[in-house]
Amino acid sequence: LAVDETNLDRAVAALRAGRAEIERWTRLSCEVDGREIAEATSELFLGEARRLEISRHLLAAPEGTEEEQKGSGLLVATGAGSTGFAGAYLDRFARTAPEARWALTEPFPRGHAHALARGTLPAGETLTVRSRNDGDGIAASDSVESVPFPYGALARIRISDRPLLAVRCPP
C-alpha cells in the first residue's frame, strides 16, 4: 500500500467503496542448482559478493545464444527494480510489464562489445546463468536473501507466476 498516516482515512474509504485498484507487479523466480531462492520484486544480482572482484559467468539467453561474460555482476530486474539499483544500467519500464531485463554491470575488458550485455526476459522463457566465479559468488534476491553461487553453479531465472498484488488507492 502507498498509504501513511496522512491519507489512511481516505484510503480506507476508497477500499470500502471499491475504488481501489490492484496492480499485479511482476516478480522473478530463481533457482540455483535446483534450490529456489526468495522471489524478487525488484532485482536479482549474480556475481561476486565483493563487487570489486571480477564476476564471471556463461549467460544463455532465452533464444538460445550464449556468451561468456566478465564484469562486476549481472542484474536481472523487473519494472519495479528499474527505478532502483538497476536504473543505473537499464531504462525505466512499467512495474506490471510481463518481462524482466538484464544488464551486465561494468563489463570487462572495458570497451569490449558483449552481444548479450543487455536483454529482455519475456514471461514463459528462462534465462540461464552458469557461474564461473572463483571467489565468493552469490545469487541475491532484492538484496535480502543471498545464496552461494560458486564456480559451476547453475541459475535459472523466470518470470514468477505469483505477481505481487499492490493496492493503489485513488487520491
Keywords summarizing the entry:
171 residues; mainly beta; six-stranded antiparallel beta sheet; elongated
What do these coordinates show?
It is built from one helix and 14 strands. With 171 residues, the chain is mainly beta. The strands form three sheets. Strands 3-2-13-10-5-6 form a six-stranded antiparallel β-sheet, with no helix packed on it. Strands 9-8-7-4-11-12 form a six-stranded antiparallel β-sheet, with no helix packed on it. The two termini are 13 Å apart.
Percent of residues in helices comes to: under 10%
Mean pLDDT: 92
Largest sheet: 6 strands, antiparallel
Strand content: 35-45%
Order of helices and strands: HEEEEEEEEEEEEEE
Overall SS class: mainly beta
Count the DSSP helices: 1
Overall number of strands = 14
Coarse shape: elongated
Residue runs with pLDDT of under 50 for 5 or more positions: none
Q: What is the CA-based Rg, rounded?
A: 18 Å
Strand order across the largest sheet:
3-2-13-10-5-6
What distance separates the N and C termini?
A: 13 Å
Secondary structure elements and their pairing?
Blueprint: H1 8-16, E1 21-25, E2 28-32, E3 35-40, E4 43-48, E5 55-60, E6 66-71, E7 73-77, E8 99-105, E9 118-122, E10 127-131, E11 137-141, E12 145-148, E13 154-159, E14 164-168
